[in-house]
Amino acid sequence: MSRRLFPALLALLSFTAVPLAPALPTDAEVAARQIALEVAGAFQNDGFKVRDGHWAGRLEKGEGKLIQVNLFAGNEYWFVLGAVAPATKVRIAVFDEAGQPVESEPYEGTVSAAAGFSPGISGPYYVQIALLEGDPAACCMLYSYK
Asked: 10 Å Cβ neighbour count for 111?
């Protein structure tokens, strides 16, 4: 390799290896996370631990989002979605890796929803979140396990 090409390749590799900084959450996303944490707090009373990570963004009516999660057989999970006004009704559902809905225990609040699920097989699953009623709004999905 030529002596001129090697430094250029090294510079390019070091540039692409630098991770992009995550966007700062908006005030509405922080408020939506607070709603989700309030719902998840009820499950903490039953021994569930809230995962460190969460997903926050904006939901539009008729345009659901899919979030992939890796779950372990033998654990119990609660997936919680919180949203802020002008959202008025949200939904959360869980699907297996083949895209088939799994049976879950539902919870519906005014601007929150949750689904409880215990997988029989470890692996990837998908959580679908959707805005059913209201105008586009910030939301936050998190989950807890035990």
From this structure: 23
Query: C-alpha 118: how far from its chain's center?
Result: 17
For residue 19, whether the previous peptide bond is cis, meaning omega lies within 30 degrees of 0, is no
Q: Is there a contact between 59 and 87 (Cβ–Cβ < 8 Å)?
A: yes
Joined tokens for residue 42: 């009820």
Going residue by residue through the chain, which has 146 residues, state the pLDDT in tens, using 9 for 90 and above. 445 544 443 333 333 333 434 566 788 898 999 999 899 988 888 889 988 888 898 999 988 899 999 999 999 999 999 999 999 999 999 999 999 999 999 998 889 999 999 999 999 999 999 999 999 999 999 999 99
8-state DSSP, 63: B
Parse the chain into domains and list their residue ranges.
Answer: 24-145
* Structural domain 24-145, CATH architecture: Sandwich (2.60)
pTM as predicted: 0.79
DSSP letter at 69 equals E
CA–CA dist 9, 68 (Å, integer): 34
